[in-house]
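Hi again,

Forgot to attach this to my earlier email, sorry! This is the prediction with FVH bound. I've pasted everything inline since the attachment limit keeps bouncing my files.
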Amino acid sequence: MTHPISDYPSVASGASAPSLSFLGLGGMGTAFARAWLAAGCSLTVWNRTAGKADALVAEGAVAVRSPAAAVAANTLVVTCLLDDASVGQTLEGTDLAGKDLVDLTTGTPAEARARGAWAEARGARFLSGGIMAVPPMVGVPEAGGYVLLSGSRGLFETHEATLGVPLVPEFAGVDAGHAALQDIALLSGMYGTLAGVTHALALVRDEKEINLRDFTPRLVNWVMSMASAIEQISDQVASGHYPTGDVAPLSMQSAGVSTFLTTARDQGVSPELLTPYFALMKRRVEQGHGDEGPAGLVELLTPRPTAP
Ligand code: FVH
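Structure tokens for the complex follow:
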């Protein structure tokens, strides 16, 4: 469920202010810590390189010397470290019994599930997070960032307001791996788009009569207007039914591939960002799906056993 940011006003200050411990003061961690301090939270921080806490202490944080001291200081314990291995190294030997552990470190779904089982075996409730933002978006609701959280619904409901201070929290299910899976899926969509954008800019950037400042708004508008097709593609993938008679059938698109490859060659641009997608279109057409749109390409990536 998506919550409007207005659900997360500044938290109370003074004796009733939420209190939490935060481990990991890298670029993202520092942005999170600042947002909690600015909202009046009582924040205990730890970082491997202790000096990174100095500025936050000046802003009101309490820095402690060990992960164990940070975990002991509060029920709500949040980690934002480099990777899952660093989370294990940091929390090993700390007493997690009765704690609510929220790990915002990016990792695989399997790592999140294993970390959840590890935390629960030590008596903690657990949420794994996928941060859909970059540091300047943290604490800036209008920037549109949010954090996916999956695992213990009870933990989420207990701390939703506090967790919502830096970024809007969205509960992503009780499977601890589902925040990470959706995080990676969303970023994969971003990388695919960036691949096309990179190729497009490479095609035109050295052309004397084309000004990138004129071309770029066209590229932005085109990518955004094409994004409206995502919902139709998703509906077809969900149903596993790929209608024929698409307005831009694969057969037509596949026939146009040579135009893209020749243009790239003539412009001195490597086609390597596009050729894997073109290869999938060709295979799908060869399998007899030329009248369909692009949604069915997913069947080539996740082949399902055919019915007996
Ligand atoms: N920055 C971003 O734009 C992205 C946005 C999406 C989410 N990611 C993930 O968030 C995690 C933290 O990212 P970060 O930007 O804070 O990362 P760094 O600035 O590189 O800081 C890393 C912190 O981890 C500490 N650390 C590293 N290894 C260990 C270890 N073995 N034991 C204890 N701590 C460790 C490091 O400490 P130090 O180097 O200062 O001593 C930093 O605090 C990350 O998963 C992103 O993928 C950010």
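Residues 24-29, 47-49, 52, 80-83, 86, 89-90, 105-106, 131, 134-135 surround FVH (CB under 6 Å). Strands lie at 19-23, 42-46, 62-63, 76-79, 100-103, 125-132, 146-151, 168-171.

That should be everything now.

G.
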